[in-house]
User: Fold Alpha/beta hydrolase family protein from Lentzea atacamensis.
Amino acid sequence: MSAVGQLRSLARENVAVAALTIPRLLRHSVWRDVNPHEGAGLGVVLMPGFGASDFSLTLATTWLRDRGYLPVGAGVGFNVGCTSALVDRIEQRLEEHAEATGGPVVLLGQSRGGGLARLAAVRRPDLVRGLVMLGSPVLDPMGAHPHVLLAARALAGLSAIGVPGLMDNDCLSGTCFEDNVAAATAPLEIPAVSVYSKSDGIVPWRLSLDPSAEHVEVHSTHTGMGLDPDVYLALRPRLAAWAAERFDLRDVG
Assistant:
């Protein structure tokens, strides 16, 4: 199957999961219970999963905004580019949003997006209040489902023949890969939460057990993590604590 075919297959899975999961989320108290002061203006930068765009985290963005956070997408387009280039763009977004919101922000990433967010947090801990990774294979970026790896290799093949804006072979096995794998396992200087599910059919759950993060188990599919009410139930008190800490620090200042 071609790279486009693989990405279309992933997109169809996302649509099917969304059709089943979104109604459950919208009926749940974690969605309906709104407190506009909870986030205290804390900024959040959201990074989508492999092959997805900011649109895939629309509901997460809405949930955060309704609770007083200031969320923005990472603005990287579809998450199919070179790892190092994407981390550069996340860093730029971090700088912009930290300045706009008056302090360090939360990074929230799904799947590959969580791994990229972690790399940005290692690079710029001064800009990060906390890190959330949803189903991210941080211990082995190449440990995802074979279909995902086939799509990645196909994209690298397209890059090799001159198609711009895609990950290349160096991202999968070269210097770029080695440097980023080393950074991906570096200790974190900021609080982090890694959400995993033993029902994850894309990323083996043990690959999400980041030794520098708090581990939170949910019972979700891989692509459904950003839509699952159990994820929001788990994240809500942790995000609120980071927001309260920011508010307290402002009072001290």
